[in-house]
Amino acid sequence: MTTDAFSEVRIEAPVVAAVAAQAACATPGVIRLEPGVRGLVSSLVRVGKQRLTSADPASSEGVRVRRTASGALSVQVDVVISAERAAAVIGHAVQQEVSRVVFEQTGQTVDEVSVTILDIEPERR
Hints:
It is a single chain. Helix content is 40%, strand content 25%. The protein is built from three helices and four strands. With 125 residues, it is α+β, with helices and mostly antiparallel strands.
């Protein structure tokens, strides 16, 4: 009789958020992630936890992950983009890249990626 020692693996939301942040930042047209007002509050909580535990996790500024009761993942990303490309094109690319990379690196399927464009910076000449 064999037992499956790896029957369940749960990837916590902060890990998914860090992976999603890296994917969003790597998307062409994204200048940076920026936490909105909600992101600032969660950042303060996270920094407090880090100081208490002496942890140094990967940055996930500007990304929030929510897992529903059914286990579905919802990712919200706040970005500043370049004016060199259409906002809708960049937003769609962020959605695709975040979904792809989170699945590749964690095995978790992202059911929804919401992108909020907080600012559009003009082209540098």
